Amino acid sequence: MFKKKWLLALLLVVTAVFMVACGDSKENSGANASDSSKGSENGDKKKLRISLGLNDQTPLYKSSVKFKELVEAESDSLEVEVYHSGTIADDRSAIEMLQFGTLEITIPSTAPFTTFVPEYGVFDLPFTLTSNEMVDSVLQGEFGDKLAAKAESQGVLQLAWWENGFRQLTNSKTPVEKLEDVKGLKIRTMENEIHLAAWKALGANPTPMAFTELFTAMQQKTIDGQENPYPTIFLEKYPEVQKYLTETNHVYSPFIFLISKKTWDGLSEEQQEIVRKAAIEAGEHNRDLSRETAKSALEELKKQMTFSELSSEELAKFKKAVEPVIEKYKSTIGEEFVKEYLAEVDKAQ
Ligand code: TK8
């Protein structure tokens, strides 16, 4: 009997000691947990990396730095890093990385995004947007919001419209002053079937290519020419590998500020508001800077290249030549949506 009492007492003591030990580890883990949450308050900021195709002299890069400054001024839990010249990825790969959540932000042209959301193809319909005023009227309103909302179906959110600009033709072979001068030119296009079809309709021999390969292809003369806005032609130093410049304004390209939905869903509401506001404000800065730079870049390019403009007769021939392309791709983009877009364009005339 006595022995049993001792055993029971021993059992109670051991249990009590065990309970205290567990309680300590819970507190510890509690303490560790609070340390780790303290850690997130003190040092572990959420990093937002931006992948850009253009270099660090361009309005795109400078406006992305502006975005960084705006975000970091408003939040000490977010950190932005800007990567330029395609060092992380080209446009299409960067968009796929956003879908997987292995990259947070990229700001590509709309053209490569059309394989993800065909409706963005409205901007590839040649000679439809023809002035900055029209661009702002169509994009900075209900239609622009409606189109941007379509991106979410692809696992990315478009937070703002930025500006690439009106696209112009360069080549290393011949001055292009009339439609027949385009004949047979090996022109690089963005990876977009409407651009490919349009340059074929103009008589060129087009090749789709990622932007990251473009300069080398011109240097090695595997292509004769390309088309991009003046800031890109000047700041990416195309006069080093291209002789002739023609003002065509054949397409207006937006840049779209895209963030991974996986990243977005991981932000607090307050962080989301800060990021959205900064993307829109930096976008306004980007449009102003892009338009200023287009003017100054053209002045410099006229000194470095043989510059041509199209007469109204020749411009009419370019427009006529691509009309069948617009007809053909209405169904790919969506007849109704193209109708809506063209109605916005007419309103903005
Ligand atoms: C940069 C590209 C580029 C575009 C092109 O990422 O590919 O020609 O105009 O600016 O999006």
In brief, what are we looking at here?
The protein is an alpha/beta fold and 349 residues long. It has twelve helices and eleven strands.
The CATH architecture of the largest domain: 3-Layer(aba) Sandwich
Strand content: 15-25%
Radius of gyration: 28 Å
List of distinct ligands in this structure: D-xylonic acid
Based on DSSP secondary structure assignment, what is the total number of beta strands? 11
- Give the averaged pLDDT, no decimals: 91
Please work out how many helical segments DSSP would assign: 12
How many structurally independent domains? 2
* Main sheet characteristics: 5 strands, mixed
CATH topology of the largest domain: D-Maltodextrin-Binding Protein, domain 2
User: What share of the residues lie within helices?
Assistant: 40-55%
Please provide a written account of the structure.
With 349 residues, the protein is of the alpha/beta class. It folds into 2 domains: 46-164 and 253-295, D-Maltodextrin-Binding Protein, domain 2 (3-Layer(aba) Sandwich); 168-252 and 299-348, Bacterial extracellular solute-binding protein, family 7 (D-Maltodextrin-Binding Protein, domain 2). It has 12 helices and 11 strands. It has helices spanning 2-42, 59-74, 91-100, 132-139, 142-149, 193-201, 214-219, 230-235, 261-265, 269-304, 312-333, 335-348, and strands at residues 46-51, 78-83, 105-106, 156-166, 168-171, 188-189, 207-208, 225-228, 244-247, 252-260, 306-309. The strands form 3 sheets. The protein has a 5-stranded mixed sheet, sandwiched between helices. It starts with a helix and ends with a helix. It binds D-xylonic acid. Residues 53-54, 91, 108-109, 164, 190, 211, 228, 232, 253 line the site of D-xylonic acid.
